[in-house]
Amino acid sequence: MRDPGNICSLEALDIDIIGFIFYPPSPRFVPDDGRLDDIVFRCGKKKTGVFVNEKPEILIDKAKRYCLDYIQLHGDESPETCEALRRQGCAVIKAFPVATKEDFKYTDDYPCCADYFLFDTKNVNYGGSGKRFDWSLLDEYRGSTPFLLSGGLTPDCADEISLLRHPMFAGIDLNSGFETSPAVKDIDKLKDFINTIRSL
Questions:
Q1: For a Cys staple, 27 with which of 18, 48, 82, 182, CB 3.0–4.6 Å?
Q2: Sign of torsion, CA 142 145 146 152?
Q3: What is d(CA 139, CA 64) in angstroms, rounded to the nearest whole number?
Q4: Contact between 47 and 69 (Cβ < 8 Å)
Q5: Cβ distance 31 to 9 under 8 Å?
Q6: What are 95-133's pLDDT values in tens digits?
Q7: Alpha carbon distances (Å) from 27 to 34, 130, 131
């Protein structure tokens, strides 16, 4: 998110966390020019800042500057980096790209250094692909860290999501499938989907 009006509209919905992307190559990048500082800082929902292979000191600075509730890591960040962030009081969401059941083995190195994992579709580049991976693979995840599901979620996914019964399944990450353009959410589409998923 980065449009002030869109953010205000989104805050009125029954959501838990709003994401702000601080990865410059992303089309949803929040520019570091000061114009959005107050908007992000005063956002009334919990906030996650999304980063890729950023220096720990910059992660901590951004967390304080924007009063982030979570730091979401989508790169090759080590368990030591995650542990260091948590020691600084930062909650961590660590993303893992998934294509096969073998990809879940990479979570084994992060048993106690992330508050949530995020499972997204494996892509050649960092960031989302707008495509889904095979959700039946989730049965292969046997860890104790709760996870969020991402990758190609659209309004048509509600029934399938409601059938997921993994004990560590904690939530969903809605992005490009609910946008009118990068970083601009379709509020009506989101509202209808959220009402549907909450009812299920």
A1: 182
A2: negative
A3: 37
A4: yes
A5: no
A6: 999 999 999 999 999 988 999 999 999 987 666 667 899
A7: 18, 13, 17
